[in-house]
Write a structure and sequence with these properties.
Distance between the termini: 25 Å
Largest sheet: 8 strands, parallel
Number of helices: 11
Structural class: alpha/beta
Helix content: 25-40%
Strand order of the largest sheet: 2-1-3-8-7-4-5-6
Order of helices and strands: HEHHEHEHEHEHEHHEHEH
């Protein structure tokens, strides 16, 4: 598998200081109905994630895969597996807060996108002032009353945001999760499959939402900065990127449960993450919805490689190569021997 390999010379003379990163796998599938997405975290690791991040001279700690116990609670109509979702995301929020307190950028490997309930809750509790880029083909803005499937991976943004709190009944097992995030601090990039109710909510609340037609009209570079200008106008928020792999076109990332043609190219996804990295305020990244049971071996490899490219860009890799430190004027001959 070919990834962004750097030479011995680049590794030896990189100016990047060690930065601390914490990786947590969340092998969770109950937010949707397709088996296999729980194997996403290990598939990304097997594809070489840790090795590639260490080449960036990152201080990487892998916290392994999350384990949780189902807490006693009642289910609610049209929210599949609420007990499991509530129990898992509670533990996710706890571990995200723990990793952030250790001064690490949190990388969460999914699993389905319902885990965003926990990662963003934990981020907001740790940093308070948070802006979220939700990079996805879908808005994930349904409630249990509007969802056609009852899948909770289509509901996390509605659960997390304070302006939508009145649209929910009491959710057993979710008392730990208070909607502390304003919808004004959320921006979508990559939308192209939005339900009627979700569109109504986007328009009613004036949510910052850039669909693929906007990417085509303005280009990904301007879209990123327009989104950040809206949700972080004073450049003072801690940034969270929740990246669903189905934001990419299925030709780039076929191993996912709800693919939609006409998505971002891998190049656009990488540039998005490079620009967010340059803010120096990116403190959490979710990479979700890789399903190794979907597609053949080639498709799985394409998808996991794409995930690693995205995460490398988020954490400091630049396609121009790493910088040589000041004062180094020549290339050591032994580099080429």
């Amino acid at each position: 598998m070919y990834l962004l390999r750097r030479s011995t010379f680049i590794r030896q003379f990189s100016t990047k200081k060690n930065r601390k990163v914490g990786i947590i796998g969340v092998p969770f599938e109950k937010g949707q109905k397709k088996h296999g997405v729980e194997r996403g975290p290990d598939a990304i690791r097997r594809a070489g994630l840790l090795e590639e991040l260490k080449i960036l001279e990152l201080d990487v700690q892998d916290y392994g895969n999350l384990k949780y116990e189902i807490q006693s609670s009642s289910d609610i109509q049209n929210m599949s597996h609420l007990k499991e979702v509530a129990s898992c995301t509670y533990k996710v929020s706890e571990i995200v807060q723990k990793i952030m307190k250790e001064g690490r950028t949190v990388v969460t490997l999914g699993g389905d996108h319902s885990l965003g309930i926990g990662t963003i809750d934990g981020h907001v509790k740790a940093h308070k002032n948070v802006a979220v880029l939700w990079v996805d083909a879908h808005a994930d803005l349904n409630t249990n009353k509007t969802s056609e499937s009852g899948n909770v991976h289509g509901m996390p943004v509605a659960l997390l945001t304070s302006e939508l709190s009145d649209y929910w009944p009491h959710l057993p097992g979710m008392d730990w999760q208070q909607p502390l995030l304003s919808i004004r601090n959320v921006a979508y990039i990559g939308l192209r499959s939005v339900d009627k109710y979700e569109r109504l909510v986007i328009e009613k609340f004036g949510i910052t939402a850039f669909g693929m037609e906007d990417v085509e009209r303005y280009g990904i570079h301007d879209v990123i900065h327009m989104a950040l200008d809206k949700i972080d106008p004073h450049n003072d928020k801690s940034i969270h990127v929740s990246f669903d792999i189905d934001a990419l076109d299925p030709l780039e990332a076929p191993s996912t449960g709800t693919p939609v043609r006409g998505g971002l190219t891998l190049r656009e996804g990488i540039h998005l993450m490079e620009e967010v990295h340059r803010t120096n305020r990116l403190n959490a990244i979710d990479l979700v919805e890789i399903n190794p049971d979907i597609s053949d071996t080639k498709g799985v490899n394409l998808t996991t490689e794409a995930a690693i490219y995205i995460l490398q860009a988020a954490l400091g890799y630049t396609r121009r190569g790493l910088k040589v430190p000041a004062g180094v004027t020549d290339i050591p001959l032994q580099t080429f021997r």
